[in-house]
Write a structure and sequence with these properties.
Elements: H1 2-19, E1 25-26, E2 39-45, H2 50-63, H3 66-69, E3 72-77, H4 82-87, E4 95-100, E5 103-107, H5 113-121, H6 140-166, H7 170-199, H8 213-272
Parallel strand pairs: 1-3, 2-3
Antiparallel strand pairs: 2-4, 4-5
Length: about 270
C-alpha cells in the first residue's frame, strides 16, 4: 500500500513538472525588436553545446525570479535563428546579453542563479560599456550581417535538399551554386551599370567653343594675307639679290682675262714696229 502511495506521488510530481510552463521566453528572428523595450537577459545557445546544456538548469531557476526582478528572461537557439545570431555576432557559446531600453551589454560574469540575480538587482550592468551604436543590433551594419547569416542558412538547406532528397552528388551541388553565383553577379553588375548610367550619364566630347572666334576670323584673314604679301616681297628681293650677285661674279671673272690680254697686244705691236 505504501509503495502504491509513493508511486502515485512520484507520478503526480512528474506530471506537475511536465505541465509547468518554463518562464524562459523563446525568441525568433521576427521578435528581436521586443528587445528594444524593457529589460532583458538573453542567452544564445545551441542544443549540441555541452556548456549550454550545463547552463540550462541555472537559467531556468533564474527565470523564476524574472517577475520579481521585473526582467524578461529569454533564450535563442542559434541553429534555428541564424538572423539573430548574425545580428549579435555570436562567436562563442553560450553568450548572454543584457538589454535595457535599446542598450546592449554583454554579460561576462559567473553563470549561476545568484550571480544573475545580483547582476540585475544591484544594477551591476551599469559598470559595463554598452555596445556601440554602429554595431548595435538595430544598426544597418548588423541588419546586413543578419541577412547574410540567413542567406547562408538558406544555402545550407538548399544544399541538403539537393544532396539528400534530389540525389545530386556533392560536387554537383557545388557546381549549381557556383553557376548561380556567377549568373547573379552578372545580373547585379548590369543593374549597377544601368543605374549608374541613369544617375550620372556619360557626357559626349564636344570641341571647345570660343565665343570670340567669329569676331577674330576677319582679322586673322587680313593678317594671313599680309604675311603672304610680305613673304612674296621677300622672295622677290632674294631673287633680285641673286641676279645682282651673278652679274658681279661674272664681271670679276672677266677682269683677269682683260688684264692678261693687254701685255700680249703690246708685245705684238712692238714686234711689228
Amino acid at each position: 500500500m505504501a509503495a502504491a502511495v509513493r508511486l502515485c506521488a512520484v507520478l503526480c510530481l512528474a506530471a506537475a513538472a511536465l505541465g509547468k510552463r518554463s518562464a524562459v521566453k523563446v525568441l525568433s528572428d521576427g521578435m528581436w525588436r521586443e528587445l528594444l523595450h524593457g529589460e532583458w537577459m538573453v542567452e544564445f545557445y545551441a542544443p549540441w553545446c555541452p556548456a549550454c546544456q550545463n547552463l540550462q538548469p541555472e537559467w531556468e531557476k533564474f527565470a523564476e525570479w524574472g517577475e520579481d526582478l521585473e526582467v524578461n528572461i529569454a533564450k535563442v537557439d542559434v541553429t534555428e535563428q541564424p538572423g539573430l545570431s548574425g545580428r549579435f555576432v555570436i562567436t562563442a557559446l553560450p553568450t548572454i546579453y543584457h538589454c535595457k531600453n535599446g542598450e546592449f551589454r554583454r554579460y561576462q560574469g559567473a553563470r549561476t542563479k545568484s550571480d544573475f540575480i545580483n547582476f540585475i538587482s544591484d544594477q551591476e550592468w551599469k559598470s559595463i560599456e554598452p555596445v556601440s551604436s554602429w554595431f548595435g543590433p538595430s544598426s544597418v551594419l548588423m541588419s546586413s550581417m543578419s541577412a547574410l547569416f540567413q542567406l547562408s542558412m538558406w544555402i545550407r538547406h538548399c544544399h541538403n535538399y539537393l544532396t539528400e532528397n534530389v540525389g545530386i552528388p556533392v560536387w554537383g551541388s557545388y557546381a549549381v551554386f557556383t553557376l548561380a553565383t556567377l549568373f547573379s553577379g552578372l545580373i547585379l553588375g548590369l543593374i549597377i551599370v544601368f543605374l549608374a548610367d541613369c544617375i550620372c550619364p556619360s557626357k559626349k566630347y564636344r570641341p571647345p567653343q570660343y565665343p570670340h572666334s567669329r569676331k577674330l576670323a576677319p582679322e586673322s584673314a587680313q593678317l594671313l594675307k599680309k604675311l603672304d604679301e610680305e613673304q612674296e616681297a621677300d622672295e622677290e628681293d632674294i631673287s633680285d639679290d641673286e641676279i645682282e650677285g651673278k652679274e658681279v661674279s661674272s664681271d670679276r671673272s672677266s677682269s683677269p682675262n682683260a688684264v692678261r690680254q693687254r701685255p700680249v697686244i703690246t708685245a705684238a705691236t712692238m714686234d711689228k714696229s
